[in-house]
Amino acid sequence: MIAYNRPDSLSRLLKSLNRAVYSSKDIPLIISIDRAESNGDVLTVAESFSWKHGDKQINYQEVNLGLRKHVLQCGDLSQDYGSVILLEDDLIVARDFYNYTSQALSFAESRPYISGVSLYNHKQNVLCQKQFSPMEDGYDNWYFQFASSWGQAWTSSQWRGFREWYKDQGVLEASDDLPAYVSAWSEKSWLKYFIQYLVETKTYFLYPKIGLSTNFGDSGTHVQESNTDYQIPLFEGVEKQYQFSDLDSSKSVYDVFFENENLNEALGVSQEELTVDLYGTKHNPQTRYLLSSRKIERDVIKRFGRKLKPRDANIIHEISGTDYFLYDMEKAGQLPDSDSDLAKELFYETKVLYLREVIRLARFLVVKKLKRFFS
Q1: How far apart are CA 296 and CA 333, in angstroms?
Q2: Which string of DSSP letters, residue by residue, matches 276-327?
Q3: In this structure, are residues 232 and 211 in contact, taking their beta carbons and an 8 Å threshold?
Q4: Is 66 exposed, middle or buried (0-12, 13-18, 19+ CB in 10 A)?
Q5: Angle at which helices 156-166 and 191-201 cross, to 10°
Q6: What would the pLDDT profile of 54-86 be if each residue is shown by its tens digit?
Q7: Closest Cα to residue 86, out of 167, 150, 166?
Q8: What are the CA-CA distances from residue 207 to residues 149, 173, 238 (Å)?
Q9: Which site in 3, 180, 276, 303 is 20 to 30 Å from 237, CA atoms measured?
């Protein structure tokens, strides 16, 4: 696990690790602490922690590595141990996290299209801060071309593949293949490089349908204020036998923009000819057909509403409306009429919104902004 300057966060994560269920009493725990001028309290927490399930090792770095180098160094431990589960200190894990991860890594070992395993399950599209959930297809997993940083695991071969690719990388340049939100991350980020690796190699992270880890958003080097924006429900069962889908049998396969890669089947067009853009974050489509929430001057073939959840279900079930449009990009057309507006989108996202709550929230945000301005 990775720690730096949050002793309370580290203590909370360690407690959740001791509460978890394990298949043996020989599980090594490595606590890697990045060097800082004043994080002796973090080292004290690590040293005083009694690990009940195997040997404990503390690696207190000789110099400050920074997050990117620190994560890469910890990922390299997979070469010594055969696999590694990597947890940052602002997480906690479910009791069944080790069982899930062991089964997922074993499943992934013989499937080269899987480049890592996530313990976290996204409930929000981080590119545009809107609700997200994968389609339910009867399996315990889904596939996502977006690497996880809130609880993740790799086999030695998965990590080695990334490292081979990474050694030839310079500074990551912005491109249409990568969301602008991701490209804009600082060079301290290891995650944006792994995401680019997934895109270039056309591989995926295997994600759970219900979380085995969750993020507290504690304030720290890369988080200004504590928040619960990315908190998700944790699985509370133990010793489950997980049912994983192969890529070909999964109905829950998503690209780096959080878009369903299988919607072409519902539309009767080939995957190569279709760009899916329900969230409106792709701005340079190169395919003949575009399925988008944006209004553009192209020929509209079909129209869909935004009433079902998740968003892609509206396409599969052919829900009528004027929220999503299937365009023929090779034919000119007029801007389509639409009844979509900010209020409609907001109500879709929040279910219920009361005026008194809106007023209270607006007042709170104004006061908060004023305090920041005058502080």
Answers
A1: 8
A2: EETTS------SSEEEESS--SEEEEEEE---SSSTTHHHHTT--SSSEEEE
A3: yes
A4: middle
A5: 90
A6: 999 999 999 999 999 999 999 999 999 999 999
A7: 150
A8: 12, 27, 18
A9: 3
Q: Find the radius of gyration of the CA atoms of the chain.
A: 22
Determine the 3-state secondary structure of 271 from DSSP.
helix
Mean pLDDT of all residues belonging to the chain: 94
- CA angle in degrees (0–180, nearest 5) for 253-195-284: 75
What is residue 208's DSSP assignment? E
By the 8 A CB rule, do 304 and 316 touch?
no
Looking at residue 25, what is its pLDDT?
87
Q: Are strands 274-277 and 289-292 parallel, antiparallel or unpaired?
A: parallel
Task: State the pLDDT at residue 222.
Answer: 47
pTM: 0.93
- Bridge partners (DSSP) of residue 298 are 332
Q: In what order do the strands lie in the sheet with 324-332?
A: 274-277, 289-292, 324-332, 298-304
* Structure confidence at residue 350 (pLDDT): 83
Confidence band for 224, pLDDT divided at 50, 70 and 90 = low
Q: Are 205 and 118 in contact (CB under 8 A)?
A: yes
Three-state SS at 115: strand
* Least confident stretch, 106-115, 218-227, 275-284, 292-301: 218-227
CA dihedral 90, 62, 49, 9 (to 10 degrees): -20
Which residues make Cβ contacts (< 8 Å) with residue 177, sequence separation at least 6? 196, 199, 200, 256
- The neighbour count for residue 59, using CB atoms within 10 Å, is 15
Q: Give the C-alpha distances (Å, rounded to integers) separating 211 from 89, 100, 120, 331, 358.
A: 17, 10, 5, 44, 30
Q: Do the beta carbons of residue 292 and residue 325 sit within 8 Å? A: yes
* CB 293, CB 125: distance < 8 Å: no
More confident residue, 145 or 358: 145
Residues 24 and 296: their CA atoms lie apart, in Å, by 58
What pLDDT score was predicted for residue 323? 96
